[in-house]
Specification:
The protein is built from five helices and six strands. The chain has helices spanning 9-15, 22-33, 39-49, 55-67, 141-149, and strands at 37-38, 72-74, 82-84, 92-96, 102-105, 135-138. The strands form two sheets. The chain has a three-stranded antiparallel beta sheet. Strands 5-4-6 form a three-stranded mixed beta sheet, with no helix packed on it. The chain has 158 residues and is an alpha+beta fold.
């Protein structure tokens, strides 16, 4: 039987035995409306909605909630760590190389094919794989259209 994950921040915190605090609730609210946010974006959103809160409080809460599995930390190459509330499924990410837009995409085939190493060998012996991170890189439609619409550089006549 599949259960639906809680979406209410207080319920989410209660289910993992984390203390319910204003900043933690504000962080979960911020990540609901701003998935794939870096810590600075979360800090600003919390301050806008909750009020004065220290940077360390937000970082500590992000760390605790990640450790308890109610938020996910992703680290696309060359970018700051990002946080999202979508956890517990086998989704991956598509990142635009130009504007850094990130899109959630489902696993390509089946529920969890990435959790079985394709080339099981002595290298994977003894590992109990429980998660796979796949990041697809490309250029989004908006960036391609913007590049196509940009006027070509004029040759310099000297």
């Amino acid at each position: 039987m599949t259960t639906t994950p809680a979406t209410d921040p207080r319920t989410m915190l209660r289910q993992v035995n984390l203390r319910i605090t204003g900043p933690r609730v504000a962080i979960l609210d911020a990540l609901e409306t701003r998935p794939h946010s870096d810590a600075e974006t979360v800090i600003q959103a919390v301050r806008d909605s909750y009020g004065k809160v220290s940077t360390q409080t937000v970082y500590d809460a992000l760390h605790a909630m990640t450790a308890h599995g109610i938020i996910r930390r992703i680290e696309p190459a060359g970018q700051s760590a990002l946080y999202e509330r979508r956890v517990g499924d086998n989704h991956h990410h598509l990142v635009c190389r130009q504007c850094a837009t990130i899109v959630d995409i489902p696993c390509a085939v089946g529920d969890t094919p990435c959790l079985t190493a394709a080339h099981e060998s002595e290298l994977s012996e003894g590992f109990d794989i429980d998660e796979a991170e796949v990041t697809y890189w490309g250029v989004c439609r908006a960036c391609r259209e913007e590049a196509a619409a940009a006027p070509a550089a004029s040759p310099v006549v000297g």
